[in-house]
Amino acid sequence: MDTENVIKFIAMGLVFWAFANACVKFMPEYATQLPLPVYEFFYSITVNTEPNPSTETIPLETIEPDSDS
Question: What domain range is 25 assigned to?
């Protein structure tokens, strides 16, 4: 790949990122009409200012030894 193609590839990537970011942040009513995998991909590459929800954790129950023995 020569330098010119690399510059074009980077520029197209930035344009795509800007479009996805604007779509998710400023036009959510249209972004949510996209198919779910497309919307999730756009949302994953945008700059999220909200904290990510942590994964749901199941509290561990304490296991007590059997008192039968």
Answer: 3-45
- Chain centre to alpha carbon of residue 53: 11
Round to whole Å and give the CA distance between 13 and 21. 12
The CA distance from 40 to 45, in Å, is: 9
DSSP letter string over 19-47?
Answer: HHHHHHHH-HHHHTTS-HHHHHHHHHHS-
For residue 44, give both structure tokens: 């994953």
Q: Is residue 58 part of a domain?
A: no
For residue range 8-61, list pLDDT tens digits in order.
999 999 999 888 888 888 888 888 888 888 888 888 888 765 655 555 555 656
How many folded domains does the chain comprise? 1
